[in-house]
Write a structure and sequence with these properties.
By secondary structure, the chain is mainly α. About 40% of the residues lie in helices and about 5% in strands.
Amino acid sequence: MKSNLLVVLAFIVATVVSCKKNTLVEVVDVPATPIEVVKVKGGSSNATDVKAIEGAFEMYPLPYTYKSLEPNFDATTMEIHYSKHHLGYVNNLNKAVVGTKYELLKLSDIFKNLNLSDSEIRNNAGGFYNHNFFWENMASNASGEPEGTLMEAITRDFGSFDAFRSQFTETSLKIVGSGWTWLVSDKTGKLRIVTTPNNDNPLMKNLGFSGIPLLNLDMWEHAYYLKFQNKKREYVNTFFSVVNWAEVLKKYDAFPKVAVSATPSATTEATTPAEVKPAAIPDELN
């Protein structure tokens, strides 16, 4: 009897141990991944303390402080956009050009000679130029509408400023993913609105179009998400409150306009914007 009891107890213990083995869960000690906190100064800086690594290109200085565009564009977004995203493009470009055919070229010549398969140069040179262009076309004391020859061209080519603004807005909202909206001119002075994906721009060859850049809008999420979240239309509408139309007009007036020939058969070369020598890259970037 005693022997039978011991056998039963042994069976029960073996069964319990077996069940525990089948239900054991291995606990893996995974070290916590630190969350990088983006440190900003609350827009108090004028961005002069943001320096790129040593190389061929330097940061384009902002013509205003981070807070200057408030309440339209918030200082925190401006600071992160300029001191993190823009700086990243400049640093990466300085590294990418070393030992390549682009190392001794000015930015304008990089675009003229760019092989689109050179994705690292294409993305970072584009990001560098596009942001420089974006910053200088905004101002805190911006006027509501353009004037002079630019307004005349907008009215001629779009019907009215309101029609231009509507088309620019709707075109921007159709961008899927990341990209830029551009107002460009051909060398006859005719305007049109185009978009580019990622960091491409109208100065790059073999994109299917070209033109002289006059105005651009950053449609990457980092440009607007902190303030506007998914309200892209509100972001685009707000952009028109900070456009420096005097600067855009200066770009439009800076290049000589080629008269359109009256004979269609002889206009191919004269009206093809691919032959335009870009005049919209600031001297300090060349």
